[in-house]
Amino acid sequence: MVAVSTVARVGLTVFLVLSAAATVFGLVRLWPDDTGASHRVASSEYAAPGVTFPIAVVQAVLPPCEGADAQTGAKPAEGQSGDVVASDATCGAVTVQLEQPTPSSGDVRPIVSVSVPPAISTSGLRDGDTVQLLRIPPRDGNPESYSFLQVQRGAPLSLMLVLFVVVVALIARWRGILALVGLCFGGLVLVRFMLPALVGGASGLLVALVGCSAIMFVVLYLAHGLSVRTSTALAGTLFGVGITAGLGVLAVGGARLSGVADDEGATLASFIQTMDPKDLLTCAIIVAGLGVLNDVTITQSSAVWELRAAAPGLGRRELFRSGMRIGRDHIASTIYTIVFAYAGAALPVLLLLFLYERPVLDMLQTESLSEEIVRTLASAIGLVLAVPVTTLIAALTVGGAKAPAVPGGPSPETPARRPAPGALPTAADLQRAAEGAPAPRTRAEARARMSD
């Protein structure tokens, strides 16, 4: 049992209570209007009226085409719109049967052959797999047309999810299950609060700070229990989130980032006129470093607690130094995790820019790579600074150093024992007599010895 400083406990409690109050106030103030968000979602049409997305079962997969059609697949059949190819096509297409009849096919489930790019033909697609098509109904005398949209991957993704949950439950047990519950809560905050608030035009910085704080308050206490140790990690996490947010705002403005680095960003900017793309980028920078920041702070808090339990005689300065030795090792490995995670996500962009044979400095200054660099560095700096802050808070929160007990001497738990009159001395009595009495530790003990 590790003692806790009363003053530090009160100070930590006041800070977290004020942070929780600010988070609740932010949630109430920034909570999106359901009517406005629903209106914007409904007004953003994914496809033209009448267009449907039927599910079909693959019956045959043709090999990729060669020559002029090697990059596009089979050419559409004559008189057909969309990607429907002739039934006698020999390459670059898949033959599928719709799972449900269409309004123009009566009770018959249509069988169609649609052109697909070579990447789909060589992806391992086989008979019996399910795909999704885009169907345009007949209009203006033109027949209905189909285009390949995507492969249905629900089964393998669900299997991986179940495997993940089972492994976490078996290895981490109840703590792992509670962490999964916290993860679900984080997703709920993201979907129900952060995304609608961004669509409604709220500040991306405020949305990220409030949303991340709400997630961390619930996730940390749910997974690690309601304790001073967890509260220490939470305080360090909130500090790291604040540092990351500040650096993100400065970097986005200083680097003149627009927040529109790809087609998805351009599409969002055209759909949602009330949202500033730079706000979205700032929010993404803060959220991106949240998980690894939580990992570092809870580890540092636990390390200091265990050090105090194992070495109660360490002063606060030595305790901080010992905790920082652990923290430096953790920082080194975590930085690798952040950098390589972002590098893996941006690998296609890196490869494309590499093929262009542009100078390295020019490559790094492109909008897409600059966003990844800013996101990586802001998260890494916030993480690194959170380590000493969390370690310092933990070192100040745990109780002060305790004087070690003298071997063989009296202690509060085992007071000195006097032999009974006439009893022979034991080996321990002889050893204590040879070593001499230990020095008194208090004035009261010295007076007691003088009166004997």
From TrEMBL:
Glycoprotein in keyword set: no
Source taxon at top rank: Bacteria
Keyword entries, A-Z: Membrane, Transmembrane, Transmembrane helix
Pfam families: YibE_F
Residues spanning the membrane: 12-31, 154-171, 177-195, 202-222, 234-252, 331-356, 376-398
Keyword Nucleotide-binding on entry: no
Chain positions covered by the region annotation Disordered: 402-452
PANTHER family documented for this protein: MEMBRANE PROTEIN, MEMBRANE PROTEIN-RELATED
The protein's name: YibE/F-like protein
